[in-house]
Design goal:
Number of strands: 0
Oligomer: single chain
Shape: globular
Helix content: over 70%
CATH class: Mainly Alpha
Number of domains: 1
Radius of gyration: 22 Å
Number of helices: 18
Order of helices and strands: HHHHHHHHHHHHHHHHHH
Strand content: under 5%
């Protein structure tokens, strides 16, 4: 029986859909696990601080600065790290990064004063710098832009789910080991428990992660050809051809990079205010039991992990980015205001924190769908620079909250400032030049 052109086309579409499903199932669960461990390394101090500050006589401001110093190393080394990944391949580089930051996380148990706290946080930031932008760049070499929102959403759901898992575990460790075990304080055990699995998974990367779809043994040669053609069409449609004299540093002159870096900074202000201070905000709203704080801190992130996947899928299906991100951030802004206004009303504060977390987290997959589509040959360095500059919020936000807590003995003022940042991010993205909103 002779296949019609339409029949051949339908067969190709089915094969391509099958390839995308296989790629998603083989890549995302493992990278999801890696990102959970990365997020643990980033924010585990938010629970450790509940006892560590007293043991080491560290002020709230010093804690906020130490939490944020992570991002100095993160910002400085993200672009070089991503360029190394592009050269040596993700299989080798991501595994190396994970083993390094896992060992440094374990070493955090040796923290003895403010200076050592700052040093360890800086080094962990250096080690983790290339992971997230590396994975985002990695996805651009597997999935076209119209699929990237849902893929990034499924990957980034690890961030809120890490708190769903890590919150109760952290609360249990901090409560159960109050009196110490094997000579270690509860906060020291927290770093050991989070660091060791990271090293183990890092050693597995080279066996679980192909460098590209061309190396994927789970795709047929026909599927690889279809994926290659889809990526070439996507690149030709969305990215201008490079001008003569195009260099590897061209991303530094790209208005896309600098504009979206500013938007990303405002989004990250909300994420890190919540990530580093959620347990403290819950404690201040009237909950004192550490296990309860751990469990309650998981609720906003559990809801957010579902919301961000739904929003990412909706944004892809409708091929619309502006309103999806702007509405998400405005909801986050409203949640932050509620959490500040009703800071001492436990149930209402939890509703505010949940809305804030959902709004901020849902913005991420929508955001990353746009610059990854526009940057083309500069994607590796451009994504890393946007991520680096945006993550300066990780330095500013924790310090800002810590400073306002020391100044006013309340997190309210800081939450209002962060809410204003969410509003600015929403407006910048919603009214970005039309050429910046493809994808």
């Amino acid at each position: 029986m002779e296949l019609t052109d339409n029949g051949i086309r339908n067969s190709s579409i089915d094969l391509l859909e099958s390839a995308y499903r296989r790629m998603s199932w083989r890549l995302i669960p493992f990278l999801f696990l890696c990102y959970i461990l990365a997020y643990f390394a980033r924010i585990n101090v938010s629970f450790a601080k509940l006892q560590m500050l007293t043991d080491l006589n560290i002020s709230e401001t010093a804690y906020g600065l130490g939490a944020g110093i992570f991002f100095i190393g993160y910002v400085v080394f993200a672009v070089p790290s991503n360029l190394i990944l592009e050269r040596v391949g993700p299989r080798r580089w991501i595994g190396t990064l994970m083993v390094t930051w896992g060992l440094l996380t374990v070493a955090m148990m040796l923290t003895s004063d403010v200076s050592s706290f700052y040093v360890f946080r800086f080094l962990i930031g250096v080690a983790e710098a290339g992971f997230f932008p590396g994975v985002i760049y990695f996805f651009t070499r597997w999935f076209p832009s119209e699929r990237r929102g849902r893929v990034i959403a499924m990957f980034m759901a690890a961030a809120p789910l890490s708190s769903v898992i890590g919150g109760p575990i952290s609360g249990w460790v901090m409560q159960a080991m109050t009196w110490g075990a094997m000579g270690l304080s509860n906060w020291q055990w927290l770093f050991v428990i989070y660091g060791v699995p990271t090293v183990a998974v890092g050693l597995m990367v080279k066996h679980c992660l192909p460098n590209s779809f061309e190396e994927a043994t789970f795709l047929s040669s026909t599927q690889k050809q279809l994926v290659r053609q889809a990526l070439q069409r996507d690149l030709a449609k969305n990215v201008p051809a490079p001008r003569a004299g195009h260099s590897r540093l061209a991303f530094l002159r790209s208005p896309v990079v600098w504009y979206f870096s500013m938007v990303y900074f405002f989004i990250e202000m909300g994420e890190y205010a919540l990530g580093f201070w959620m347990p403290t905000i819950i404690q201040n709203s009237g909950f004192s039991d550490l296990r309860s704080i751990g469990l309650l801190s998981a609720v906003p992130y559990l809801v957010a992990s579902i919301v961000m996947i739904v929003v990412g899928r909706s944004s892809d299906l409708r091929r619309e980015r502006r309103l999806h991100l702007a509405i998400s951030l405005l909801i986050g802004m409203a949640g932050l205001i509620i959490a500040a206004r009703f800071a001492h009303h436990g149930a209402v504060a939890m509703v505010g924190l949940t809305l804030a977390t959902c709004g901020v987290m849902a913005a991420f997959p929508v955001f990353w769908s746009v610059p990854t589509t526009l940057l083309g040959a500069s994607a590796a360095a451009g994504v890393a620079l946007i991520n680096s500059i945006g993550n300066l919020a990780g330095l500013v936000s924790p310090w800002l909250v810590g400073w306002t807590v020391d100044l006013t003995h309340s997190t309210d003022l800081a939450l209002y400032i962060v809410a204003a940042c969410a509003f600015l991010g929403a407006m910048l993205f919603a009214f970005a030049p039309s050429t910046f909103n493809k994808g």
